[in-house]
Amino acid sequence: MQHYRDFLAALSQYCCSTTAVLSQYYYSTIEVLSLKTRLSEATYRYDELPEHAFRYLVLHPGASNEPLVCTLRTSNVNNAEYEAISYVWGSEVQEHDIICDGTILKITSNLNEVLRQVRRAEGARNLWVDSICINQKDLKEKGHQVAMMGEIYRAATCVLICIGSAGSECAPGLKILAEAASRMIDKALYHTIYGMRIDPSTESHPLRDLESDSEPTFHHNGQDPGIDFDYRSAVERCLDIPRWNIFPFVEEEDVFLRGPEWNLMNTFGQNEWFDRGWVVREASLARKAVVIWGDTELLWDDLNRISLWTGRRAKKDLDMTQAVRIRCHFEAYRTRYRNFSSVFFQEVDWFEPSLLDYMGFARTLRLKDPRDRIYAFLDLGPKLVQGLAIVPNYTDTPLKVFQDFATNYILTTKDMNLLYHVMHDEATVETESMTWVPRWDSGPENMVHFVSSSAYSPLRSRTGQISKPTISANHVLRVQGLIFDTVCFTSNILTGSYSTSSNVPLTIGCSSLTKMFFAVWLQR
């Protein structure tokens, strides 16, 4: 017990700043509980962050049933080595404790579960957790740190996607499926590339010209190179540029697609994590991401590759509701890994989502603060974001944030696609002066923007010019355009798994132009 007495003696001198003490002494559960009793009246106080700095959390080791203990450190993002956590905040009720720098800090049930899940039995773990590392009560700090979150997630050695334990009995089976399917994709792509266009004399550039009519030949005298062969590295050497639409389609009767294990992907996609808006940026910017589902770890990359392959080649049915929930993730992954994704697409069909596209796709996702309908997606669609210079400000009302964003966006980009996302009901039309500003926090929850995306360019004049919008002093948006037809029909909102051929009467009441448009769209 001598170390305990020394610990308490040092504690009495350090008061609320006991970082050094916690790092020098080992202590039992009983001792920590005694400490918690003594500190029960204390409240953790955040130090002010220097400019361009951030905090990360050092989670001390412990068994699953032992109290959580951590230290907060301040650093520059580029000088720290840490993992970032992506999880569902859940209830805001803070009914659990973590000892942070010798002071009790209250945390939610979800975060308590996550930290226990990632805590090591031996050795500390450096983590970035937004709800602890950002002083949520300091709105100025919160705005600055939210602006840095893209940088924080990019710099993390790994993003830990913690989706809890619900349904985790499926996780081991999904891990086997994900690894097998990912290797199958690499192997099929390897044989497609090397079989079609091989140059055995050049290891780093094994592809010949795309128009070669010669008979396919394979490395290793036409034999499979073996179970230990690194297909991924061989394929990556070839994908220094896009290789459009070369991946083979899968036969419907392929035995690989018949197994019940494919239902595990649907179970995984139903997890609450996919309903949250913030996680899109957290996962898509990661250098490496690992999904922690119960006691099982899965590579986020493998799961995205499966989704891409099944959607573009295996043509497996996907419930529309689930497709909407994962669309942001799908678009972010294929855009970031353009060269790999190109093997599943025709070049003419390729488009890269804009910031507005992501914000539109995310209307169905949950965000507790309406202002985050904009702030949570600022690092996506960088081509149009550059120059906007948006700084998150949580002292502004949501409506002001929407209005400032719309004004800034129009004046900076001259992009009128913003108007695609305007939705009003009778109440908002009557009460708002700037009716051309999208209300990102309202509108049909199951709205899918198939047409209103950057995949479709605006019709231009013969000279290729587009009228530049202006905004008057009284906030009136002035644009010029040409009226060329009338909308004669709109369908009901699709709320489930629908087939456009059997449930949407495309021809009833439509003008010839509308018919032609949908006919072309369905063929894309």
TrEMBL record:
Heterokaryon incompatibility domain span: 82-282
Residue stretches in coiled coil: none
InterPro entries, sorted: HET (IPR010730), HetReg/Transcr_Mod (IPR052895)
Protein name: Heterokaryon incompatibility domain-containing protein
